[in-house]
Amino acid sequence: MSCFRRVYLPIKVMKTLVILISVLPCFSWAQTPLERERARFEAEAATALAPVREAYRLRLLAALDSLTKAGQLDAAVEVRAELATISGIKPGNQNAPIAGQKWEWDKGQVIFARDGFVKSSDGGWEARGLVTSWKHLGNGVLILHIDKGRNDQKIALLQFNPTWTEYSGWSFDGTVIATRRKVR
Question: Which residue range forms the structural domain that includes residue 39?
Answer without folding.
Answer: 11-181
